[in-house]
Amino acid sequence: METTNYSKVYSWFLDKVTAYSLTMFDDTEKEEIVYGYMRSACAKFKCCKVDLTDRDDELRVFNNTLNDEILDIISETMVVAWLQPKLNNEDNLVNSLSTKDYSLYSPANLLAKLTDVFTLAKKNSSIMISNYSFRHGRLPKRGGI
Question: CA spacing 20 to 30 A to 21: which of 15, 34, 61, 141?
Fold first, then answer.
Protein backbone atom coordinates (compact mmCIF):
# COMPACT_ATOMS: atom_id res chain seq x y z
CA MET A 1 0.00 0.00 0.00
CA GLU A 2 1.30 3.45 -0.91
CA THR A 3 1.51 6.00 1.89
CA THR A 4 2.20 9.71 2.17
CA ASN A 5 4.44 10.96 4.97
CA TYR A 6 3.18 13.82 7.12
CA SER A 7 6.48 15.56 6.40
CA LYS A 8 5.39 15.98 2.78
CA VAL A 9 2.22 17.77 3.91
CA TYR A 10 4.24 19.89 6.34
CA SER A 11 6.61 20.86 3.54
CA TRP A 12 3.73 22.05 1.34
CA PHE A 13 2.40 24.12 4.25
CA LEU A 14 5.77 25.63 5.19
CA ASP A 15 6.31 26.67 1.57
CA LYS A 16 3.16 28.84 1.88
CA VAL A 17 3.95 30.67 5.11
CA THR A 18 6.75 32.56 6.78
CA ALA A 19 6.49 31.24 10.32
CA TYR A 20 9.37 32.78 12.23
CA SER A 21 7.56 31.95 15.47
CA LEU A 22 8.09 28.24 14.79
CA THR A 23 11.87 28.68 14.99
CA MET A 24 11.66 29.17 18.76
CA PHE A 25 10.40 25.60 19.22
CA ASP A 26 12.43 22.41 19.10
CA ASP A 27 11.70 19.95 16.27
CA THR A 28 9.28 17.85 18.32
CA GLU A 29 7.22 20.85 19.45
CA LYS A 30 7.28 22.32 15.95
CA GLU A 31 5.99 19.06 14.46
CA GLU A 32 3.17 18.87 17.03
CA ILE A 33 2.08 22.41 16.19
CA VAL A 34 2.08 21.77 12.44
CA TYR A 35 0.38 18.39 13.02
CA GLY A 36 -2.46 20.26 14.75
CA TYR A 37 -2.88 22.51 11.70
CA MET A 38 -2.90 19.44 9.44
CA ARG A 39 -5.46 17.63 11.57
CA SER A 40 -7.72 20.68 11.49
CA ALA A 41 -7.34 20.99 7.71
CA CYS A 42 -8.14 17.32 7.15
CA ALA A 43 -11.28 17.61 9.27
CA LYS A 44 -12.51 20.45 7.05
CA PHE A 45 -11.80 18.64 3.76
CA LYS A 46 -14.77 16.29 4.05
CA CYS A 47 -15.31 15.75 0.32
CA CYS A 48 -11.83 14.38 -0.38
CA LYS A 49 -11.87 11.22 -2.49
CA VAL A 50 -9.13 9.85 -0.24
CA ASP A 51 -10.02 8.97 3.35
CA LEU A 52 -7.94 11.50 5.29
CA THR A 53 -8.80 9.82 8.59
CA ASP A 54 -7.00 6.66 7.43
CA ARG A 55 -3.63 7.54 8.85
CA ASP A 56 -1.07 6.26 11.30
CA ASP A 57 -0.09 8.95 13.79
CA GLU A 58 2.72 6.83 15.24
CA LEU A 59 4.37 6.33 11.86
CA ARG A 60 3.34 9.84 10.80
CA VAL A 61 1.83 8.71 7.49
CA PHE A 62 -1.44 8.75 5.62
CA ASN A 63 -2.27 5.20 4.56
CA ASN A 64 -3.03 6.48 1.07
CA THR A 65 -1.23 8.39 -1.61
CA LEU A 66 -2.10 12.08 -1.58
CA ASN A 67 -1.67 13.72 -4.98
CA ASP A 68 -0.47 17.30 -5.48
CA GLU A 69 -4.01 18.66 -5.70
CA ILE A 70 -4.94 17.16 -2.33
CA LEU A 71 -1.66 18.30 -0.78
CA ASP A 72 -2.29 21.82 -2.07
CA ILE A 73 -5.80 21.94 -0.60
CA ILE A 74 -4.73 20.53 2.76
CA SER A 75 -1.78 22.93 3.00
CA GLU A 76 -3.95 25.93 2.03
CA THR A 77 -6.46 24.96 4.70
CA MET A 78 -3.56 24.60 7.14
CA VAL A 79 -2.78 28.28 6.45
CA VAL A 80 -6.28 29.10 7.72
CA ALA A 81 -5.61 27.04 10.87
CA TRP A 82 -2.25 28.81 11.30
CA LEU A 83 -3.85 32.27 10.99
CA GLN A 84 -6.81 31.57 13.29
CA PRO A 85 -4.92 31.89 16.61
CA LYS A 86 -3.19 35.05 15.39
CA LEU A 87 -6.58 36.59 14.67
CA ASN A 88 -8.04 35.40 17.97
CA ASN A 89 -5.09 36.73 19.99
CA GLU A 90 -6.38 38.67 23.00
CA ASP A 91 -3.49 41.15 22.76
CA ASN A 92 -4.61 42.12 19.25
CA LEU A 93 -8.15 42.73 20.47
CA VAL A 94 -7.04 44.79 23.48
CA ASN A 95 -4.66 46.83 21.32
CA SER A 96 -7.32 47.49 18.71
CA LEU A 97 -9.79 48.71 21.31
CA SER A 98 -7.40 50.90 23.28
CA THR A 99 -5.40 52.63 20.59
CA LYS A 100 -6.06 56.28 19.82
CA ASP A 101 -3.56 56.47 17.01
CA TYR A 102 -4.93 54.71 13.94
CA SER A 103 -1.76 55.19 11.97
CA LEU A 104 -0.52 52.90 9.22
CA TYR A 105 1.34 50.81 11.80
CA SER A 106 -1.22 50.89 14.59
CA PRO A 107 -2.35 47.71 16.36
CA ALA A 108 -5.88 48.31 15.10
CA ASN A 109 -4.62 48.43 11.53
CA LEU A 110 -2.61 45.27 12.15
CA LEU A 111 -5.73 43.45 13.35
CA ALA A 112 -7.69 44.68 10.33
CA LYS A 113 -4.98 43.51 7.93
CA LEU A 114 -4.70 40.19 9.72
CA THR A 115 -8.47 39.77 9.42
CA ASP A 116 -8.21 40.51 5.69
CA VAL A 117 -5.46 37.91 5.23
CA PHE A 118 -7.43 35.34 7.22
CA THR A 119 -10.58 36.00 5.19
CA LEU A 120 -8.65 35.64 1.94
CA ALA A 121 -6.96 32.40 3.07
CA LYS A 122 -10.29 30.95 4.19
CA LYS A 123 -11.94 31.96 0.90
CA ASN A 124 -9.09 30.41 -1.13
CA SER A 125 -9.34 27.20 0.86
CA SER A 126 -13.12 27.04 0.38
CA ILE A 127 -12.83 27.67 -3.35
CA MET A 128 -10.18 24.96 -3.69
CA ILE A 129 -12.37 22.45 -1.84
CA SER A 130 -15.42 23.39 -3.93
CA ASN A 131 -13.52 23.10 -7.20
CA TYR A 132 -12.12 19.75 -6.10
CA SER A 133 -15.57 18.45 -5.18
CA PHE A 134 -17.07 19.50 -8.52
CA ARG A 135 -14.22 17.89 -10.48
CA HIS A 136 -14.46 14.65 -8.52
CA GLY A 137 -18.23 14.55 -8.07
CA ARG A 138 -18.13 14.80 -4.29
CA LEU A 139 -20.12 17.69 -2.93
CA PRO A 140 -19.05 18.97 0.49
CA LYS A 141 -21.44 18.56 3.39
CA ARG A 142 -23.24 21.67 4.61
CA GLY A 143 -21.38 23.78 7.11
CA GLY A 144 -17.92 23.13 5.65
CA ILE A 145 -15.07 25.55 6.07
Answer: 61
Q: Is 19 left (phi over 0), alpha (psi -120 to 50) or beta?
A: beta
Q: Average pLDDT over the chain, rounded to whole?
A: 83
pLDDT tens track for 98-130:
545 444 456 667 777 778 878 888 888 888 888
User: Can you spell out the DSSP letters for the chain?
Assistant: ---EEHHHHHHHHHTT---GGGGGS-HHHHHHHHHHHHHHHHHH-TT-SS-TT-EETTTTEESS---HHHHHHHHHHHHHHHHHHHHT-HHHHHHHHH-S---TT-HHHHHHHHHHHHHHHHHHHHHHHHHHHHHHT-PPPTT--
